[in-house]
Amino acid sequence: MQGNGFKIFLIGFFLALSGYYLYPSVQNYLINREMDSLTEEERVDYEQENLAHIRQVREKALKLGLDLLGGMHVTLEVRVEALIRELATDTDATFDEVLAEARRQADTEGTPIIDAFVSEFEARDSEGRLSRYFRNDDLGITRRSSNDEVATYLRTEASEAVDRAIEIIRDRVDRYGVTEPSIQKQGTRRIVVELPGIDDEERIRGLLRGTARLEFRLMGDPAELTRSLQSIIQYYEPEVDTTDAAAADTTLGVDQLLAQGETGPTNRLLDVMQPVGQGVTFGRVSEQDTSAVTQLLKDSRVRDFLPQGVSLMYTSSPIGTTEEGFEVFDLLGVRGEVELGGETITDARVDFDQFTNVPEVTMTMNSEGSRTWARLTGANVGRNVAIVLDNVVYSYPVVEQRITGGRSNISGLDSRNEAQDIVTVLKSGALPAPVEIIQERTVGPSLGAASISAGLNSVILGLILVALFMMMYYRTGGVVANLALVLNLIFVLGILAGFNATLTLPGIAGIVLTIGMAVDANVLIFERIREEQSTGRTLKAAIQGGYSKALSAIFDANITTFFVGVILYSFGIGPIQGFAVTLMAGILSSMFTAIVFTRIIFDYLVIDRRMTVSYG
Q: If 0-12 CB within 10 Å is exposed, 13-18 middle and 19+ buried, where does residue 279 land?
């Protein structure tokens, strides 16, 4: 083995390095197998006790792609028109009409919404200035700013909003614990998110879409809400004979109006909502009727009946279920003015109520928020304060005393997962503009498991067939080539794990192709050795000549293929990149094992052990 010391060191070093990078994958496999054997409760406890270790192992383990692990592929679109409305410092009916038309053109014609907005505005008023809607002295938008300057300002803000949304979504996904997510910008307002290993799709949808706009608001006056409810119910009463005094009496209570509706034509509102009129609760609505109730309450006359500055919002958690199994939510009267915003929150964590052990979210505010919260609670003792997240009321506790120290709680949550998701979005920050899911694709875990099984079977079958052929045709040389093949496979997986690459189904196809290419170099070498032996040269000289003469052909074939892999990776996307990664890793590994590893084995057998090696 003289003269091969450095080569042996390289093989040992790369083998140890591959083992180091693949060890977390082995750990991850053992952890998953242990967790699969546990019950649901035991599994949750195990995850909580070993959360840090599990996350560390999964971060370092060989990543599996969406097609192998199962999961979600989601395309999100940032609602730029909502951002435009938010940036506007003043609006009117013309602004609303222009923005609605711009949205229509963007949806139907594919026109960039800002371009459509500017064009539509100028088409309606060629002398008009958009600056009257977007005055912002800090950013250089004054009354004299041209429409082009305003358009540039809007495009800059929209681009930054999409980039900021990507950062926030990535932070939320990382906090959720998704392994190797893929989050990429597509076009000017779309974000493509791939989340392998997801099994709670609805939870992920909420996590991605939630704008995380936390607000503290006062609730409406109970007496005013009750009077409004009576007026709205009366408004939707069907027309009856005007001589009927009861029908003409607008002072009837809620119970009387309900009883009256049972004897004649039905009331459209009462058909889909159960009125309450007690405290701050306006009514109760079954989940399948929420859209119908919302539509009825959008009527301009109905909005006039509501107390000034009060809007109606649903609770986040149901208060019960109907006989048919539909969840029922309370509809609450909440004041429109935001007393305190979520930007004052500096920390949030999941806690449990000391009496009921129900999960809740504890929030800590900065100094400014603490002062405002103390003033707000001190001035409204005995009244309800709503904690609103994304226009949904999570809790509305009665203030019992002035609260100092800047601490508050969100209670009334269904599960620890819901509490954790709220903490996630609060810590990640609010999205600069709402996003909506415009495309969604789901790969089930069973399909992913089937892909893994099929991929492993193809790799194993490929190994067996190639190994059998090499042993039968090249005898001892074939056995050595098979050892190199196994080492090559270890190196390929080690390279993927070391570079934190993701193994996909096309990647497995690349590995299968690599298996065939790995023995190709050995075939070239063995044939050259046989040619050298046929000229009467000794076995030692034949081996030396065979490796020397085959080297140029091996390099030419593999380097050109490697460059093809580089091109595929550079210009391809998704599955093509997965194939290119394993192809390039396989080429590098197969060249090393074919030229270095097999040569060391043959030198040891022929020179040190003085054995006769057969090449078929």
A: middle
Q: Six-digit token pair at 236?
A: 């939707």
pLDDT in tens, 78-111: 888 888 888 888 888 888 888 989 888 888 887 8
With contact defined as beta carbons under 8 Å apart, do 297 and 285 qualify? no
The answer to whether the Cα torsion of 44, 45, 48, 49 is positive or negative is negative
User: Closest Cα partner for 134 from 118, 112, 119?
Assistant: 118
Domain spans of the chain? Answer: 5-20+444-608, 75-211+437-443, 212-430
Q: Which residues does the chain have with pLDDT short of 50?
A: 242-251, 261
State the pLDDT at residue 13.
92
Hey, is 178 helix, strand or coil?
coil
Question: In this structure, are strands 63-64 and 502-503 parallel, antiparallel, or unpaired?
Answer: parallel
Q: What is the pTM of this model?
A: 0.55
Task: Pick 5-20+444-608's CATH classification: 1.20.1640.10, 3.40.50.1100, 3.40.50.720, 1.20.120.30.
Answer: 1.20.1640.10
Q: Alpha-carbon distance 517 to 369, whole Å?
A: 65
Residues 6+ apart with CB under 8 A from 440: 72, 73, 74, 75
Q: For residue 282, how far is the Cα from the chain centroid?
A: 36
Give the angle 495-496-501 at the CA atoms, nearest 5°: 140
Cα–Cα distance for residue pair 104/99, rounded to 1 Å:
9
pLDDT at 210: 67
| Measured CA distances, 309 to 218, 275, 312, 334, 529 (Å) | 11, 21, 10, 8, 91
Least Cα distance to 257 among 229, 281, 278, 283 occurs for 229
Torsion of CA 293, 295, 298, 304, to 10 degrees: -40
CA distance 537 to 493: 39
Q: What's the pLDDT at 243?
A: 47
Running DSSP on this structure, what letter comes out for residue 72? E
212-430 is classed in which CATH architecture? 2-Layer Sandwich (3.30)
**Contact present, 435 and 217 (Cβ < 8 Å):** no
The tokens describing 88, both together, are 């506007």
Nearest to 228 by CA among 301, 289, 140: 301
Within 10 angstroms of residue 339's Cβ, the number of other Cβ atoms is: 17
Partners of 407 in the beta sheet? Answer: 364
For residue 259, what pLDDT is reported?
53
**How far, in Å, are 345, 377, 397 from residue 400 at the CA level?**
22, 8, 9
Q: Which of 93, 98, 133 is nearest to 113 (CA)?
A: 98
CA-based diameter of the chain, in Å? 125
Rounded to the nearest 10 degrees, what angle do helices 222-235 and 254-261 cross at?
A: 20
End-to-end CA distance of the chain: 25
pLDDT of residue 312: 92
Three-state secondary structure along 474-490?
HCHHHHHHHHHHHHHHH
Is residue 372 within 8 A of residue 405, CB to CB? The reply is no
Same fold, 5-20+444-608 and 212-430: no
